[in-house]
Amino acid sequence: MYKVEAIIKPTKLHEVKDSLEEAGFASLTVTEVKGRGQQKGMMQQWRGRKYCVDLLPKTKIELVLAEEKLDEVVELIRKTATTGEIGDGKIFIYPVQSVIRIRTGEVDEDAL
Ligand SMILES: Nc1ncnc2c1ncn2[C@@H]1O[C@H](COP(=O)(O)OP(=O)(O)OP(=O)(O)O)[C@@H](O)[C@H]1O
Ligand SMILES: [Mg+2]
What we know:
alpha+beta, Alpha-Beta Plaits, two-stranded antiparallel ribbon, 2 helices, 6 strands, 37% strand, binds magnesium ion
């Protein structure tokens, strides 16, 4: 099992969430986060003054899946979250040792 952690533009959340659901991946965790990439934030103008915004709002989506679903989900998120602009985000993939469904005690892929 793997955890896919995608940091995306907040404006892309609904599209990514809907396409995951359509493809059969309903369970996920979403967190509003702040971050920066290689441009180290950006300059923004507000009321005629320039501000350096160090950390930009991003949305983190996490989902844990069986290995055979990994490529499909990563490609789906990548396609859906793309605008072609800087700051489109990143996808991190981690191995998951085990999963337990609290209600039933089921483990691993039965618990996903
Ligand atoms: N190496 C990293 N480690 C942890 N978080 C990261 C890393 N790179 C990016 N992030 C997270 O992803 C968000 C989006 O990153 P971003 O897409 O700007 O990456 P980038 O490398 O600058 O690529 P691009 O040039 O396309 O903007 C960041 O705001 C941060 O939250
Ligand atoms: Mg960037």
